[in-house]
């Protein structure tokens, strides 16, 4: 067939040729755009067959462009979802995808033609392969650091101790633990009273752990360590521009950080009177007002306070508000001093020696009987904390396998009168005669068992009682 110039066939061929050149030009332009993209680019059809890609992507995969084109995307890229997006038509933006053992950020965008998916454009965010590897390593390092700090923060904000970790079997301590476990289930305010070193913070941890707030934070505040001028901003926080030097973003206070959990106000007796007024409002209204705020904020926090002083005496002296005292003292837990439960000494000594052996690497088989007698005779003004310090020092100075009297620091052996004076002046509750006899019996049995190495027959002989009597007293006093 002869084609006439300017005939309809000729014109049609020219038009088609022009369209082909236009399509080729547009394809070349698209390819150039893809090649010059900073990130890796891949285009597949609706069924997942590769139509186009750039050199950056091919180089990263360790392949050449010609061997990629026309293949199904699953044959070329691991963990790909391009073909899935081609079927669903749902875009996937900034998704993490593992390629060549490294996590990348990938996006998969469907391209529509008359409401049908015509193609899918996939991108992986990187500029150069070396930059990609460097960024991937940096992200992985940052992720590990973030996981570490989150774990450490969780440790610090969560309760570390339970009622089971509060060691002791004396009736006095058991009663306090029983009351603490009972009130932990409620949301009432608790005041913990006890000398320094008796373990008041352990009780705060245990109460939080047993409460329905255990999933929330436990925020600890030492009232004696905060300067008077910073008390309000530390407890309640402040807003931007509240005062000179304030952070632009403001700062959350301890009460805000404890939201949904428990705040433990240790050494509450050291709180200034001005702050006592504000704390009373918090207890009454369940709201705080950050420094510089124009309105109060509601809070959801349980308050546990602790003191090593007699707050009633401070109330009488005008150093502590009586209304705050009664708001705090809904339930009081009085943690007994170590001298009131000396029968627990063997148990505590054993615990500290095991703990200190792990920490220091110094092994001690135990404490010699004469050294244990010194420990029993001492009044322990520093309580359990002091006992731990004494045993730690003994580990470092001992020359033999066990701790002897010579290894202990010079513990002042008070006369009976001096010892009783110390108890009275400390404010400790004077026990009934029956309780005193029970504690004396329990202490004597513990000493005898310790000296006999756990041999109950030998212990009974030392005590001058029969085997059945010893077993009955061991059961009565819950001695293990």
Write the topology of this structure.
Elements: H1 8-35, E1 40-45, E2 50-53, H2 55-61, H3 65-68, H4 73-76, H5 82-88, E3 92-99, E4 102-113, E5 116-124, H6 129-157, H7 171-184, E6 190-193, H8 200-210, E7 218-222, H9 231-236, E8 237-238, E9 251-252, H10 254-257, E10 262-266, H11 273-285, E11 287-288, E12 297-298, E13 302-307, H12 311-316, H13 322-328, E14 331-334, H14 345-360, H15 369-377, H16 383-397, H17 416-426, H18 433-451, H19 456-463, H20 467-476
Parallel strand pairs: 6-13, 6-14, 7-10, 10-13
Antiparallel strand pairs: 1-2, 1-5, 3-4, 4-5, 8-9, 11-12
Characterization of this structure:
This protein has helices at residues 8-35, 55-61, 65-68, 73-76, 82-88, 129-157, 171-184, 200-210, 231-236, 254-257, 273-285, 311-316, 322-328, 345-360, 369-377, 383-397, 416-426, 433-451, 456-463, 467-476; strands at residues 40-45, 50-53, 92-99, 102-113, 116-124, 190-193, 218-222, 237-238, 251-252, 262-266, 287-288, 297-298, 302-307, 331-334. By secondary structure, the protein is of the alpha/beta class. It has three domains: 8-127, PAS domain (Beta-Lactamase, 2-Layer Sandwich); 163-334, Rossmann fold (3-Layer(aba) Sandwich); 338-476, Helicase, Ruva Protein, domain 3 (Orthogonal Bundle). A hairpin with a 4-residue loop joins strand 1 (40-45) and strand 2 (50-53). Helix 11 (273-285) crosses helix 13 (322-328) and helix 19 crosses helix 20. The radius of gyration is 38 Å and the shape is elongated. The model has no long low-confidence stretch (mean pLDDT 82).
């Amino acid at each position: 067939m002869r084609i006439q110039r300017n005939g309809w066939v000729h014109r049609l061929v020219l038009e088609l040729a022009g369209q082909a050149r236009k399509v080729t030009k547009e394809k070349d332009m698209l390819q150039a755009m893809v090649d010059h993209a900073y990130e890796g680019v891949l285009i597949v059809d609706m069924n997942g067959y590769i139509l186009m890609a750039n050199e950056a992507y091919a180089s990263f995969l360790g392949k050449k462009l010609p061997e990629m084109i026309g293949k199904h995307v699953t044959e070329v890229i691991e963990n790909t979802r391009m073909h899935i997006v081609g079927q669903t038509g749902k875009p996937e933006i900034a998704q993490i995808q593992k390629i060549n053992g490294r996590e990348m950020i990938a996006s998969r965008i469907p391209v529509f033609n008359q409401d049908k998916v015509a193609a899918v454009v996939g991108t992986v965010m990187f500029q150069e392969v070396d930059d990609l590897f460097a960024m991937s390593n940096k992200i992985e390092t940052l992720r590990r650091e973030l996981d570490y700090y989150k774990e450490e923060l969780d440790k610090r904000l969560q309760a570390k101790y339970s009622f089971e970790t509060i060691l002791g079997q004396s009736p006095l301590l058991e009663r306090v633990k029983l009351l603490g476990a009972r009130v932990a289930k409620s949301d009432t305010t608790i005041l913990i009273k006890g000398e320094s070193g008796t373990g008041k913070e352990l009780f705060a941890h245990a109460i939080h752990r047993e409460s329905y707030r255990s999933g929330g934070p436990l925020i600890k505040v030492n009232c004696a360590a905060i300067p008077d001028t910073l008390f309000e901003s530390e407890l309640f926080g402040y807003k931007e521009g509240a005062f000179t030097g304030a952070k632009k973003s403001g700062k959350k206070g301890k009460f805000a950080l404890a939201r949904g959990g428990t705040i433990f106000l240790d050494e509450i007796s050291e709180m200034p009177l001005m702050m006592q007024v504000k704390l009373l409002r918090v207890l009454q209204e369940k709201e705080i007002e950050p420094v510089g705020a124009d309105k109060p904020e509601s809070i959801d926090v349980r308050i546990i306070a602790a003191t090593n002083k007699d707050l009633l005496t401070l109330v009488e002296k005008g150093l502590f508000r009586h209304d705050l005292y009664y708001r705090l003292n809904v339930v009081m837990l009085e943690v007994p001093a170590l001298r009131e439960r000396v029968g627990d000494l063997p148990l505590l000594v054993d615990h500290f020696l095991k703990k200190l052996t792990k920490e220091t690497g110094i092994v001690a088989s135990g404490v010699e009987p004469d050294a244990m007698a010194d420990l029993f005779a001492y009044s322990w003004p520093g309580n359990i904390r002091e006992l731990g310090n004494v045993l730690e020092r003994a580990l470092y100075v001992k020359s033999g396998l066990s701790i002897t009297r010579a290894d202990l620091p010079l513990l002042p052996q008070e006369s009976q009168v001096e010892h009783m004076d110390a108890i009275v002046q400390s404010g400790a509750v004077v026990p009934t005669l029956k309780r005193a006899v029970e504690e004396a019996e329990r202490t004597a049995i513990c000493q005898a068992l310790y000296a006999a190495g756990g041999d109950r027959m030998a212990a009974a002989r030392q005590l001058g009682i029969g085997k059945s009597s010893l077993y009955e007293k061991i059961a009565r006093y819950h001695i293990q």
